[in-house]
Structure formats: C-alpha cells, structure tokens
Design brief:
Elements (H helix, E strand, L loop, with lengths): L1 H12 L4 H35 L4 H6 L3 H9 L6 E3 L2 H12 L5 H21 L11 H18 L1 H5 L8 H11 L6 H20 L5 H16 L9 H4 L17 H30 L5 H16 L7 E3 H9 L6 H16 L1 H4 L4 H15 L2 H10 L1 H16 L2 H18 L5 E7 L5 E4 L18 E10 L4 H12 L4 E12 L1 H16 L3 E5 L3 H10 L1 H5 L4 E2 L7 H14 L12 H25 L13
C-alpha cells in the first residue's frame, strides 16, 4: 500500500496526468476495501475460534492484529492472511485440556514453540516437507475436526452445561443433561443464526454472512435486554478489554510438556498455510517459496506469543476474501492488521454483548462446511490407498487426542511415500535436426539451443517421467507453472510415468483452470488405459476437457503428433512467424502428416501385391 501511496504522491508532485493519479488511487482503494472486508470477518471468527480453543475471546482478537501484520510483511504469498483457524484452534484446545497451568499462559508458550519450529524449518529450507503429507490425510483430519467442532457446540446451542472433552465424553454429557432442558432463548438464537448464514450463503454469497449474523445478534440482544432474561454472552466467559494487545511473556518452564502438541500444531499450521498459498497462487500466477512461507508463518506465531495470541495459521476464508476483493499486494494484509488494532480500541464493549448461542450457530455452520462430502467421495473412489489414508485419519481424529491423530496421519503419509518413493523428471521436448521431437536435459533459451534444434514460441512440450503421487505434486506444480509462463499451449507427455493419485490430479486441474482463465491451454498426452480410468473416476475428464486429453496409442508418437496438431490449431489464428521460414510447430505437424501419408501409401501398395509365386488375373483386378 505504501508503494501505491508513494506512486500517487510522485505523480501529483510531478504534475502527472489525471489518469495516472486515478489509477494509483484506485489501487489504494482496492487494497483498503480488501483490508476492511478481512477485518469485518476477523472479528466474529476470532471470537468464535477462541471459544473452540477454550480460551478467552480476546485472545482470538489479539491473534488477528500484530501477527497478521508480521506475516503479511514476511511471508512469500501476497494474499494469505494469518490468524486463528477452526481446525488449529481445536488442536490447541485439546492440547490445553491436560495442562495444570493457566490456559492463557500455556497457549502463549505454545505459540512461541510453534513459531520457533516454523522459523527453523524455513531457515533450513524444509519447504518441500509438506509435500509428503498427502491430501487424503489432511482431508481426514479436517473432516474429523468438523465433527468435533459441531459436537462441541451442543451445550452452547441448547444453553446447558455438562462435561466436555472428546467426542464420546461430550455426547454422553450432553445426552445426560437432556436436550429437553434446553433454554429456548439460546436455541432460538442458534437456529436463527444457522438459517441466516445458510440463506445468505445461497442468495448473497458475496456478503460476509458471519458479520451480518453477529451484528444482528448483538443488536437484538441489546435492544430487548435479553441478558436480563438469562441469555449468556461473551462477557460471561471473559470480557474483551478495550485497548491494544498486551505484551505477554511465554513461560518457558512449560515448554517440555507442550513440546508434543507444538510439533502437531507446527505440522498442521504449515500444511494449512501452504495449501492456501498454493491454491491462491494458482489463480494469480504468483511464484511462491515454501521456505519463506514457513519463515513468515513462524514469525507470525512468535508475534502472537508476545502479543496475547495463541498458535495461528493461514486462514482460508480470510485469505480467499482478501484475494476476491481485489488485493494485489501484501499491504492489504498489513492494513487489515492495523485496522484490527483500531477495532480493539473501540469495539471491545460491544463484542462483550455477543450471544454465545449465536456464536455456536456460526461454528455449527463452519463445522458443516469443513466436511467436504464431494471431495471425500472422490478421494475414496480414486485409489484404495487414498481412501484408507483418509479413513484412518478421520477415525483417529474422532477417537484419540488430535495431536496423536496428526502424528498418525504423518506416519501414514511416510509409509505411502516409502512404498512409492521415486521423484519425477520434467524435460522439455524440442524439434531436432531430423524434424523429430527430442528431449533436452537442461533448461535452454532460444539463444542457447544446439544447432539444428528449434521450438515454437507459443507452444511448449514437456516430457514427464517418474511416479505421479502426492510426494511429487509440489515439484510437478512448480514445473508446470514455470513452463506455462509466456506460452499459449502447454503439452505434457506422461506416457512414461507410473500411477496417478488424487493429489496430482488436483495439481493438473488447478493448473488447467488457471491457464484457462489466462486464455491458455493444457494438453495431456500418452495416458495409458489405467491412468485414463483413474481420471474418469476422479471426475477430472470433465474439468480438463476431453479435447485436451490424448491417450496413448499403439503407433509410436501417434498421440503426441495429434496433440501437436491440435496445439497448432489453437494458436494458428494469432500465431506470428517463429522464424523467417515460418512457424516451426506448424512445419513439424505438416511433416509428420506427410510422413504418415507416405507410410499409409506404402501399406496400401503392400496389401495389393500378390504373394510370391502367385499370378493375378487382370480381369479380377
């Protein structure tokens, strides 16, 4: 944002045109609109997620101030907004249950440990580590967390009290109290909040329903003085103080006892943040550094430890909203943190009147959204191993402590990796001296191509070898993103690859969608029947497009030549001269068609010749 403001001031001082000034102001305005949108969502989410962690609501708000500023300045992604998340908050809450110390002090110390581990991972350039935690494992944990979050709100929805803990403990405690003893006022607020959120999500999805629901709940409570009628509010748990976040000092004497939970929080936070950063970068085209993401996220957690917060991650909802509202730089995230500080100075007493039942309704909707049924079906149907990884992690998240479920999920990922541990190689194919496609072993520019070799400026062809599994997904995405820069069509030959899982399919789909939005095309070549069947089961054929898939054929390079011909057809209407003699790709396609025509002619002549020693009656023709 400072750069945009500086550009505006420079243009004004130099007597720049009105158009230049207007553009600068428009960019600043978009950044500020994005920041305001993120803040409006941060307030209800910060309070709600702190409730999940069993911490005072103020800690959720503190975690969205200074840590957001630090993370936005230091991380690689321009759009990811740090802060408390639902799944991580649930993990933090589970880790604090067995602690005899003050929960606030333990949460602050936990944030410091997580931050130090993440910073260390970034400095050691361990960014590729998250590639070995498969999507089914993460999906299993997130789905289990959704169930636990929903069950954990039963007491708040009905306004009852009882034992809380794991899934079975909470359910038994709630049933023993009896839903019949529910408070009608609490149930009414919870149900109304759910109906409002679901309705707004379907009818006006661009408006943040969480903000509207919380504002209405607070307004109704204050106007009707429902607290006097027994309605529980945030102030009954812990009032939100007015003022800036306090300076807090972690208690290092708790570090040893919190270490296992810190490792689990570190893994989950890095997986969440990296997945969000990659998802947004696939749309924006930004190049990311996983190690820098680790470092920035770690510094955010360290900032949270010294400013009254608890362990945080990259927020999917706030990051997506930041990008959707037009943010182009990291300064939108910085501005959202600054605005949140101003909110803390003013709105603390108002937040105190938030009905707990309304927050429980919000969390119930959040829990439901975490359980992605279509993605679960797809994961189970794609490969048996993916289904097993999901199922084991999901059940573990429900029945054992969440930090142990994370360890189990990581163990499953390691086992799957060891079974299929082989990296991929991605080579570019260019046209050789004899007019045939040849691979080159290192990246080359047009100026450094060997004599006699050539390639098209608008079409790039890649040859991929190795095992296409989740451990190679990050490497594959990086290679495809780099190759797609500056071309109209990217042809990827995967004839010599082995296997393909749902994580790699996700990468291919995200690259294809991002390229399509930029007016580019992704073509896949050489898929054997087994790979085609996997793509069909995963529903990827509809997303990639049948006309973009060229399965393997018996004749050598037949599928590749067909794909090259299709690629030429896609760029031909706007293709400029690749050289003085014409487009090299078009000439290659014509040469292959002519060669094939000669082969067919020879085959036809051979079929018409009689066997040796036989005569032919001319009248029989």
């Amino acid at each position: 944002m400072a750069l945009q403001i500086g550009a505006f001031c420079t243009a004004y001082a130099r007597g720049g045109t009105t158009v230049a000034v207007g553009r600068s102001m428009k960019r600043v305005l978009k950044e500020m609109i994005a920041a305001v949108g993120v803040v409006t969502l941060s307030v209800p989410q910060g309070v709600a997620y702190a409730m999940i962690a069993g911490l005072p609501p103020a800690m959720g708000l503190y975690a969205t101030c200074i840590p957001v500023i630090v993370g936005s300045l230091l991380r690689s992604s321009r759009h990811v907004v740090a802060g408390p998340t639902n799944a991580l908050s649930l993990l933090v809450g589970g880790a604090l249950v067995g602690q005899s110390s003050d929960p606030m002090s333990a949460a602050i110390t936990l944030a410091l440990l997580v931050g130090l581990m993440q910073v260390g991972a970034g400095l050691l350039r361990l960014g590729s580590v998250v590639d070995y935690i498969s999507s089914p494992v993460v999906l299993g944990y997130i789905s289990g967390a959704g169930v636990l979050i929903g069950v954990g709100q039963l007491h708040n929805i009905t306004g009852t009290t009882g034992p809380r803990g794991g899934l079975l403990t909470t359910l038994q405690g709630w049933l023993s109290v009896g839903p019949a003893s529910a408070e009608p006022l609490a149930v009414g607020f919870a149900v109304a909040t759910v109906i409002l959120l679901v309705g707004m999500r379907r009818l006006v999805p661009k408006i943040p329903g969480a903000v509207v629901a919380m504002v209405l709940a607070i307004g109704v409570n204050i106007l009707l003085s429902l607290e006097d009628a027994g309605l529980a509010v945030i102030a009954d748990i812990a009032p939100v103080p007015t003022g800036l976040p306090p300076l807090t000092i972690p208690d290092l004497s708790l570090a040893v006892g919190l270490l296992p939970a810190a490792v689990a929080c570190t893994v989950l936070s890095l997986v969440e943040s990296s997945a969000i950063a990659r998802a947004i970068a696939s749309d924006t085209g930004q190049r990311l550094s996983s190690s820098r993401e680790f470092f920035g996220q770690g510094m955010s957690n360290i900032a949270a430890a010294f400013s009254g917060g608890y362990p945080i991650s990259g927020s999917l909802s706030r990051s997506a909203l930041n990008a959707q509202l037009g943010a182009k730089t990291r300064w939108a995230g910085v501005a959202s943190g600054v605005l949140m500080l101003l909110v803390m100075l003013v709105l603390g007493p108002i937040v105190d009147h938030t009905p707990i039942a309304a927050l429980a309704g919000l969390l119930l909707v959040v829990a439901f959204q975490l359980i992605d049924v279509p993605k679960i079906k797809r994961t189970i149907q794609t490969r048996p191993a993916d289904g097993i990884a999901f199922g084991v992690t999901f059940i573990a998240a429900l029945l054992i402590p969440l930090n142990q479920a994370i360890y189990l999920g990581v163990g499953i990922s390691v086992v799957l990796f060891l079974q299929r541990a082989r990296m991929i190689s991605v080579l570019e194919m260019v046209i050789g001296p004899r007019g045939r496609l040849r691979t080159i072993s290192e990246p080359l520019t047009d100026d450094t191509l060997p004599e006699g070799f050539s390639r098209c400026q608008r079409i790039k062809i890649l040859h991929v070898e190795g095992v296409l599994f989740f451990g190679a997904a990050g490497e594959l995405q990086l290679a495809l993103d780099e190759a797609a820069a500056g071309v109209d069509v990217l042809v990827v030959r995967i004839k010599r690859t082995q296997g393909i899982d749902v994580t790699v399919i996700d990468v291919l789909e995200s690259v294809a969608i991002a390229m399509d939005r930029r007016g580019q095309h992704l073509l896949l070549v050489g898929m054997p029947p087994r790979v085609m069947a996997t793509l069909q089961r995963a529903g990827a054929v509809e997303i990639l497009g049948e006309d973009a898939l060229f399965p393997s054929r018996k004749r050598w390079f037949a599928a590749m030549n067909d794909a090259a011909g299709h690629a030429v057809g896609l760029v031909e209407p706007r293709c400029e001269q690749c050289s003085e003699t014409g487009c090299v790709a078009a000439k290659y396609v014509e040469a292959q068609r002519a060669r094939r025509a000669r082969e067919r002619s020879k085959e036809a002549v051979a079929l018409e010749l009689p066997p040796e020693g036989c005569s032919v009656d001319p009248q029989q023709g």
